[in-house]
Amino acid sequence: MIRQDFNTKEENTWCPGCPNSGILLSAKEALAELANEGKLSVKDATLVTGIGCHGKIYDYLNLNGFNGLHGRVLPVCLGMKLGNPDLTVLGFGGDGDTFDEGVAHFVHACRYNADITMMVHTNQVFALTTGQANAITEKGFVDGSTPLGQGEKPINSLVLALEMGATFVARGYALQGPYLKELIKKAIIHEGFAFIDILQPCIVYHKHSMPYFNKNVYKIEETRDTGNLNQALERAREWDYSYEKDMKVPTGVFYETKRPTFESQWPQLKKPWYALKRNINWSRVIKEFK
Amino acid sequence: MEKTILIGGAAGLGSAVTAHLIGRIFCNLGCYVFNYRDYPSLIRGGHNFNVLKISDKPVYSHEYHYDFILALDQKTIDIHRKDLKKGGLIFGAKETEPVVQKLQGPGILANDVLIGLLFKYFGADLEIILTEADEIFGKKAGLIKKAIEEGYKLGVQKETLRRSSGQEAKYFISGSEAISIGAIAAGLDVYLAYPMTPASPVLHFLAKRQLANNILVFQPENEIAVVNAALGASFAGAKTMVGTSGGGFALMSEGLSLAAMTELPLVIYLGQRPAPATGLATHTGQGDLKFALNAGHGEFLRVVSSPGDAQEAITRTQEAFYLSSKYRVPAIILSDKHLAESDYSFNEIKKSALPDSRFILENPPQDYKSYKITANGVSPRAVPGQGPVVRANSYEHNEAGHTIEDSAWTIKMQDKRFKKLDFIKREINKLNPVSLYGKGNNLLISYGSTKGAILDALPQMKNFRFLQISYLKPFPAEIVSKEIKKSKKVILIENGVKGSLADVIKEETGITIKHKILKYDGRPFTPEFLVDKFKKI
Question: Which CATH number fits domain A3-289: 3.40.50.970, 3.60.15.10, 3.40.190.10, 2.40.50.140?
Answer without folding.
Answer: 3.40.50.970
